Amino acid sequence: MTDLRASLPEQKQKLRERLRFRRRHFVASLDRMAKLAAFRALPAPLAERLADHAVVGAYVAHGDEPDVLPMLADLAATGALALPHHAGRVAEMRFRRWRPGESLVTGPWGTRQPDDGAPLAEPHAIFCPLVGFDRRGGRIGQGGGHYDRYFAAHPAALRIGIGWSVQEIDACPRDSADIALDAILTEQELILCGDRL
To answer: Within a 10 A sphere around the Cβ of 103, how many other Cβ atoms?
Structure first.
């Protein structure tokens, strides 16, 4: 339940704490086979749509986030995959091309990213990790606003959230800076949130 007396940033932070706890315990309860089976194949609507896109943005899973790189292995092998890159804590998020086997470095937020010399890319579709989500495309992220700013600057890019089913909530608190997702993929289903997929 959201405390409506709290400010929007306070509401989001309380939700993040609850949803991280829920995600951590859900992932800990999964057996090894369930973890291996999750997020291994692109659902047909996504596979068909991504076939038309030259570059797809993804991420390197951190902590309990779902690992989407195996699902995107074919794209990565052809050089059509790009990962988020932060030059510093105050720098804007950009994407740099990456292929399996290429080195990754630790970025300023503790996540793994391509090194500074990897070619820049502008993904046509972006898979982004979620802390929480609703079925209308609402997203709770880590709180830095990096994806929302990138989405606002690149409105044509498809926005696909990735999360475990237990991260779903009834409604995400949103303000004008929060950009809606086009779809959400969980280990159970693909949720279409708009008319772009």
So the answer is: 10
Residue 167 marked in a binding site: no
Q: What is the mean pLDDT of residues 141-155?
A: 93
Residue 17 annotated as lining a ligand binding site:
no
87-109: average pLDDT = 92
Domains along the sequence of the chain with CATH: 8-189 (3.40.50.10420)
Contact 171, 73 (CB under 8 A): no
The answer to the question of whether 140 is labelled as a binding residue is: yes
12 annotated as a binding-site residue = yes
Query: By the 8 A CB rule, do 128 and 162 touch?
Result: yes
Residues 6+ apart with CB under 8 A from 69: 58, 60, 61, 76, 100
Is 144 annotated to bind ligand?
yes
List pLDDT tens digits, range 43-96: 988 888 887 667 999 999 999 999 999 999 888 778 799 999 999 888 799 999
Instruction: Flag whether pLDDT at 1 surpasses 80.
Output: no
Is there a binding annotation on residue 35?
A: no
Q: Is 138 annotated as a binding residue?
A: no
